[in-house]
Amino acid sequence: MVNYRYLGNSGLKITEITYGNWLTHGSQVENDVATACVHAALDAGITSFDTADVYANGAAESVLGAALQGQRRESLEVFTKVFWTTGPGGANDSGLSRKHILESINGSLKRLRTDYVDLYQAHRFDHETPLEETMQAFADVVRQGKALYIGVSEWTADQIRQGQALAKDLGFSLISSQPQYSMLWRVIEDEVVPASKEQGLSQIVWSPIAQGVLTGKYLPGQALPAGSRATDEKGGKNMIARFLDDDVLARVQGLRPVADELGITMAQLAVAWVLQNDNVAAAIVGASRPEQVRENVAASGVTIPAELMATIDEVLGDVVQRDPSLTAASSPAKRPS
Fold first, then answer.
1. What's the rounded mean pLDDT across residues 4-33?
2. Which residue in 163, 168, 158 sits closest to 195, CA to CA?
3. Would you call 55 a catalytic residue per the annotation?
4. How far is it, in rounded angstroms, from Cα 283 to Cα 208?
5. Per-residue pLDDT averaged across 286-305, rounded?
6. Can you give the residue range of the structural domain that contains 66?
7. Which of 55, 120, 149, 218 is an active site residue?
8. CATH number at residue 119
9. Which pTM does this prediction carry?
């Protein structure tokens, strides 16, 4: 079964392996398979589920809501997000304006078939909306009982500090940050993690397996596996491309002896690695087959000894991306349309 961790400086506990449905539900996999994956997560002890209104333009939320029907709502932790374009893409169909936040939470609740979400997250930072307006809207969502807690995703250290100061003035707190984080992508370590610790947030990290690269199935100098994310034209191909360098892939193969020594798979090693960071509350894992859920859950509770953590660093060397400026680059200067 899956271990629990507190989320930020709050009393909310979430499963350290959290099920996410980006790029899968409502898009890559049929609804019956998606439902089977959700049920496999529940059977394995996962109670925390992450989605977003933009995933498949709302379809991912709908699939998750349907799959969770019949479960005791109080025993689940459901997360969703707001920022990216939804609906037909009108002038106010994206961003973190009061209008978009208040309309989006209502749409998410309807699709998720619930009266509230446990965590509502700003999916990116909105440079076109005053931060005061955004935080006031989140405060109202909390007061209305539509979200119990508020978090952010891919915000910089300074944005987190500014947002938290406003949140506390309004009577609530930011408790989480959702960044990309893996053995290969460590851009949060120098600035975001220290700021989060200082401000009472912890991380719910996405792509801990680097879009599948850290499973070791992509081999240097060889054709991409048929049906893999790297060949998916619906979005996965673009995201994984940054990791498909032969030097990166060769170094990833060098991690096999570490996984073997621990008696776990490469995917489990990748998930366990992010969970060694004491500011990480959960690793988000997705799945296109129920057996993938069961494999990833086995990473819960795994401890990687310090000497093997050092070995991982030596093996990967300079292919690891550490530039903290890449967090800021993930939020567009203008709202998407």
1. 88
2. 158
3. yes
4. 6
5. 94
6. 4-211+278-302+322-329
7. 55
8. 3.20.20.100
9. 0.95
